Amino acid sequence: MGAWPDLTEYHEAVQHPPRAFADPGLKAVTLELDRFGMPKPATGGNAVVYKANEPGGILTFKKTWAIRCFLRPISDHAERYEAISKHLRKVRLPYDVNFQFLKQGIHIRSNWFPIVKMQWAKGDLLHSHIEKHLGYPAALAALRAKWAILVRHLEAAQVAHGDLQHGNIVVRGGSIQLVDYDGMWVPALRGRHATEIGHRAYQHPERSGQDYGQEIDRFSALVIYLSLAALERDVTLWERFHTGDNLIFVREDFQQSGRSAIWQQLRRIGSREIDQLTAALVAMVQQHPMKVGNLDSVLKNPASYPASSKAPTSIPASTPAQRVAPKALPTPAVPSWMKKGGYRDHSDD
Are residues 95 and 206 in the same domain? Predict the structure, then answer.
């Protein structure tokens, strides 16, 4: 197959869809362009993504796709996506989008490399949706309730997303959709290792590639739920602790559970519910990543996590500038011409 393509090679290839893609629909797409007229990429730790519009015909509607081009080889990618696709068709959750793993996806240097053709999810990414609704506690409360239902449904369907974070959660109207299934777990993948360990601002600090199963979403599910609950009651948390690449927590908060500034501020809210949710999250940090309880168990038995005294009485205030949430995996260097072309780095894709 040859050396794996880099960002520059992907960027050059997608400028010529009829030559780049084997899929008939993708041959006809028009890519979203930046202000310089170049394809607009968004990249995370595992893939560079392009937004592409497929024109409609007499009997077909116009479609919009996310074309995911992988930044590193994964030997069993095809098997994983086949297992994920089969299971999602079986359980029929309302939170996923249509996708196809294309082994002969994109043509570069006389070789074919795999891609994922995924329906473009319309709506706001979670952090953008939250920012629009700060100061509207009823809206955040409604979103929090829907989040709890989504997490419950995933558990019941034996699905774990693997990277629950703001950039993989799309909110539109009254619905939530999840995107990016590279790290997803379904029962057919039991016994394998994870291909990624998720966004650092949402994952258990001890999670490793060996931690891969039904339990991998439980910590991040509570991080998101607690963040929403806290923002309902104190919108100033957003200005103080949101970095642009998180909600209100960063990795260092989990490594200093109960001791960094965010924990002190949560206690100052003076809410029994927030205190119990905070205590549950602190308790989870002390547990093995695969031994933590699910969100339903926390919500049904909040008293089993009594408010702890781990948070000190005085902590220096932190500012967003001091709180940097690193990406989940190192992202390949961005060529200078991409930076000049309006390139943006997104851990969400």
Answer: no
The answer to whether residue 346 sits within a structural domain is: no
Within a domain: residue 2? no
Domain match, 130 and 115 both: no
Whether residues 147 and 201 fall in one domain: yes
User: What's at 321, amino acid-wise?
Assistant: A
Helices 137-156 and 218-233: angle between axes, nearest 10 degrees: 170
Q: Say which CATH number the domain at 31 has.
A: 3.30.200
* Helices assigned H by DSSP within 234-260: 236-241, 251-255
- 63 backbone dihedrals φ, ψ, rounded to 5°: -125, 150
**Which helix (H) or strand (E) covers residue 20, if one does?**
helix 17-20
Find the domain containing 72 and state its range. Answer: 7-120
* pLDDT one digit per residue (tens) for the chain, 349 residues: 669 999 999 999 999 999 999 999 999 999 999 999 999 998 877 899 999 999 976 656 789 999 999 999 988 999 999 999 999 999 999 999 999 999 999 999 999 999 999 999 999 999 999 999 999 999 999 999 999 999 999 999 999 999 999 999 999 988 999 999 999 999 999 999 999 999 999 999 999 999 999 999 999 999 999 999 999 999 999 999 999 999 999 999 999 988 999 999 999 999 999 999 999 999 999 999 999 999 999 999 988 876 654 443 333 444 443 555 444 434 444 444 344 444 334 433 3
Are 296 and 164 in the same domain? yes
**pTM of the full predicted structure?**
0.87
| Structure-token match 């960002």, residue found | 7
CA dihedral 318, 322, 328, 330 (to 10 degrees): -170
Sequence-distant (6+) residues with CB within 8 A of 274 are 226, 229, 230, 233, 266
What is the SS3 assignment for 100? strand
Residues 130 and 269 in one domain: yes
